[in-house]
């Protein structure tokens, strides 16, 4: 059970790093903006569903986040977590 938890933490961190590397908007956004969404990732690492669970006030910020998601290329789900496919991740993005 601990190995499974460590695999989740490690994979979530890899997802965060990959997304962060692609979320580099051209304009500055207000620091109080926030966007929460849920990604569903298949076993090969492809995002096949994304839902916004809490929208920020700025459509431009929302578009920048979605563009970052679309550019990101996630690694395949680790073997330990494949039973959980599709793997769902909740992310909170702030500028």
Order of helices and strands: HEEHE
Q: Strand sequence of the main sheet, in spatial order?
A: 2-1-3
Q: N-to-C terminal Cα separation, in Å?
A: 35 Å
How many strand segments? 3
Secondary structure tally, helices: 2
Q: What Rg do the Cα atoms give? A: 14 Å
Mean pLDDT: 85
**Low confidence ranges:** none
Multimeric state of these chains?
single chain
- Assign the structural class, choosing from mainly alpha, mainly beta, alpha/beta, alpha+beta, or little secondary structure: alpha+beta
Descriptive report:
There is one protein chain. It is elongated and about 40 Å long. A hairpin with a 5-residue loop joins strand 1 and strand 2 (47-54). It has helices at 2-22, 59-71; strands at 35-41, 47-54, 87-93. The chain is α+β, with helices and mostly antiparallel strands. It has a three-stranded antiparallel sheet with strand order 2-1-3. The mean pLDDT is 85.
Features:
95 residues; alpha+beta; single chain; 36% helix
Q: Layout of helices and strands, plus pairs?
A:
Blueprint: H1 2-22, E1 35-41, E2 47-54, H2 59-71, E3 87-93
Antiparallel strand pairs: 1-2, 1-3
At a glance:
It contains 2 helices and 3 strands. It has 95 residues and is of the alpha+beta class.
